[in-house]
Specification:
This is glycerophosphodiester phosphodiesterase. With 350 residues, the chain is an alpha/beta fold. It is built from 13 helices and 15 strands. The chain has one domain: TIM Barrel (Alpha-Beta Barrel). Helices cover 30% and strands 19% of the residues. The strands form 4 sheets. Strands 3, 4, 5, 8, 9, 10, 13, 14 and 15 form a 9-stranded mixed beta sheet that branches.
Length: 350
């Protein structure tokens, strides 16, 4: 498989994608096989030959960046058992309410929810709940881990950093984007040639990152705007009130030239690449999303392919990889099953 550093050349605000080069991003590591975002899951994904490892970030009470998908802890840890009185009114245990030391005292596990007072795994066939010993870690610890592997393995696997809910952190008086960029700069990720991509669902914050933070800090990283249909994913401050961000703005082709001023790429839910209502098994209808992004100089890295949660319009995971990467012509994809993604791309590019 051609590596993304050789396959994608970013020039200013445009991205030029070489033919037959597809990027595989390990979504939360090899999260289909080991608990998400643990160093163990990252090591396994690294060994599977991925191009990038993803890091979702939230901030602790004492201003550390920890690698965790949600900005709360109760879905993937024993926080409710160890700190039963620390939930907010909504019942969630937020990262921002705990110190790093407190978080490191927790045991992390496969994602779950509570049903009838019992823990129920989000994906039944994945790693057993609360088995073995897994811990959370900081962004610095993960970067040093990956850079160490790159040195010993002679590779250049990249990092794909996502700030979780910058709007929420702002409400709590913290600037997660500034803190993230400071760490990235510390470890040498400062230019578009750096093997690092910065992404977020928060478009207002991405504009702030590109127009203020990066210029002030003397860095210019590649950026991706994530896109969802979930109206509660991001909020923006308008006339002193926090309102739900309308993602329809990011999907409208008329706005893509403006979006490309801030984003080198787009990260949509992969369903946004197809006419889902018209698609069925053996008949997948591709829309113009990728073409519109490419016409405006942006790459497209959709999320998230899962073998154990397929859409109705495909029979198996290979059909989904093919639909996203080759029929729709996305430049890469996030997947919980990075080994299957790497294998599929290698088979297509022989």
């Amino acid at each position: 498989m051609l590596k993304s550093t050789a396959a994608i050349i970013f020039l200013g605000l445009s991205a030029v994608t070489m033919a037959n080069a597809k990027t595989i991003v390990a979504h939360r590591g090899a999260s289909a096989y080991l608990p998400e975002h643990t160093l163990e899951a990252k090591a396994l994904a690294y060994a599977m030959g991925v191009d990038y490892l993803e890091q979702d970030l939230a901030m602790t009470k004492d201003d550390h960046l920890v690698v965790v998908h949600d900005h709360f802890l109760d879905r993937v840890s024993d926080v409710a058992a160890k700190f039963p009185d620390r939930a907010r009114k909504d019942g969630r245990y937020y990262v921002i309410d705990f110190t790093l030391a407190e978080i490191k005292s927790l045991n992390f596990t496969e994602g779950f929810e509570i049903k009838d007072g019992k823990m129920v795994a989000g994906y039944k066939g994945r790693f057993p709940l609360m088995q073995s010993a897994f811990k959370i870690h900081t962004l610095e610890e993960e970067i040093e881990f990956i850079q160490g592997l790159n040195k010993t393995m002679g590779k250049n696997v990249g990092i794909y950093v996502e700030t979780k809910a910058p709007w929420f952190h702002k409400q709590e008086g913290k600037d997660i984007s500034k803190a993230t960029l400071e760490v990235l700069k510390k470890y040498g990720y400062t230019t578009k040639d750096s093997n690092c991509i910065f992404q977020t669902f928060d478009y207002p914050d991405l504009k702030y990152v590109k127009t203020q933070l990066m210029p002030q800090m003397g860095i210019d990283l590649r950026t991706v705007i994530l896109i969802t249909t979930n109206p509660t994913e991001t909020y923006e401050l308008k006339d002193g009130k926090w309102e739900s961000f309308d993602y329809k703005y990011l999907i409208d082709p008329a706005n893509m030239a403006e979006i490309a001023q801030y984003a080198d790429g787009m990260g949509p839910d992969y369903n946004l690449l197809f006419d889902v209502e018209k698609s069925s098994k053996g008949h997948i209808v591709v829309n113009d999303f990728v073409r519109n992004a490419h016409n405006n100089g942006m790459i497209v890295h959709p999320y998230t392919i899962r073998k154990d949660r397929l859409p109705d319009y495909v029979v198996n995971v290979d059909e989904l990889y093919d639909a996203v990467l080759y029929k729709a012509d996305a430049d890469g994809v996030f997947t919980d099953f990075p080994d299957l993604g790497v294998k599929f791309v290698e088979s297509k590019e022989k």
